[in-house]
Amino acid sequence: MATPLYFAASQLASWCGLTSLHRHFGNGSQEIQRWGFGSGSWFTENDQRSPVFCLKMSGFRQQNVDDFYEMGEELGSGQFAIVRKCRERSTGVEYAAKFIKKRRLSSSRRGVSREEIEREVDILREIQHPNIITLHDVFENRTDVVLILELVSGGELFDFLAQKESLSEEEATMFLKQILDGVHYLHHKNIAHFDLKPENIMLLDQSSPSPRIKLIDFGIAHKIEAGNEFKNIFGTPEFVAPEIVNYEPLGLEADLWSIGVITYILLSGASPFLGDTKQETLTNISGVNYDFDEEYFSNTSELAKDFIRRLLVKDPKKRMTIDQSLEHSWIKAIKRRNVRHEDSGKRPERRRLKTTRLKEYTIKSHSSMPPNNTYVNFERFSHVLEELGAAEDALRELQKSQATSREDLCALRSIYEEKESWYHEEQEGVGRQLVGLRQELQRRESQRRQVQEDLRGAMLSANALKRRFGKLENRYEALQAQFTAEMSFVEDLLKTVERGEDGLRGVC
Fold first, then answer.
1. What are 285-312's pLDDT values in tens digits?
2. Confidence at 506, pLDDT banded by 50, 70, 90
3. Same domain for 344 and 251?
4. pTM
5. Which of 137, 195, 217, 255 is catalytic?
6. Whether 91 and 208 share a structural domain
7. How many domains does the chain fold into?
8. Is 195 a catalytic residue?
9. CATH of the domain at 293
């Protein structure tokens, strides 16, 4: 619990362009729990119907979404949102409708704040790119904001690649190039995604041999403005940059760090900084503690390792930019090699990377994810279940299936124990904070009582001084009266003496 990110990451809450007022917006959040939809006073339905009110609500349509879209099956749900497949009544085109519960009070933690959803929608209205999910429409009613999103049905990239027996670096870089293209577009608009990770790299569909990448989840994306220092604690610990962990100024460079982590995992099936606990993970990131274990990188080219090394740099200013990443020899060499072999008519020799560890990584990461994704892939464990259900009669196949099942159960048990331990640590942390607050309250109460006692003593002293002053004043007045009387007597006496002397002078 050394950094605030430990708390922010525990909530995990999460996640492109405008062509008309209500069409072609960007993506919805995958980490819904992390959104905090702000406060505000919500108006009556009559108020919401007025044209003036509609203009005030950032272009969100104050109409019944069911009048325009036919809702279908549920695709997923999170703490504050439900995603359903829907069909536009006027065109028959399918989309995904995400219903987000609005936060009604600023003091409440239930629902998502208007400020954050407006920021995301504003960003998504600005962007339009083939590798970024599109927001088609936005509706709002008394309780929900409804995002009509492009339907991304191809699942996660890592799930798709994990189904293959092996993967070549050429295939990996073809997908990575699409990721870089999407980020390149964002960065040239000074937009930082801040939550690039495998769960947010989806495929539009799997119908083509080379599916199109779609970057999703702009729930914590921000516009980076020159002269405005921006700091925050957010993201998924495994993929955040050191400057987030250390609460330093953030910029576009944080996305490049995340791409380095994603590339490392893509080529090895291992996570470079993942520790046994969240705190260990953050410590590894802050210290840039990673290496290229020969067990995982024996078939990986030096160019690929150099690409990763130049991204996993602690100093953001020394990290490769998105332009430099696209110009890196590893990315450009793949393209040149493919063109050369196309000209010669020969198939290129490819380094083949086993995807066994990548599959293990995806199973574990999906198992440990909190139930707050915008898109929930209900087929994530289908292959494991099919293997268990359709086990061969042969003893060797049965043993293989049993071993796989045991490994998965052990991984799930380990994850459960880790989460249980983490929740226990969180409770202890909150308890310690409460004790500290209680002690501070007692100290302040003691100080207050001491001040009251000092004030009471001062008032008593003041009253005593006042009484003493009154007595002295009376004494002074009495002495003054006595002095006046005596002076009058002396004056009378002097006058008598003077008259006596005058009489004597007359006799003489």
1. 999 999 999 989 988 999 999 999 999 9
2. confident
3. yes
4. 0.60
5. 195
6. no
7. 2
8. yes
9. 1.10.510.10
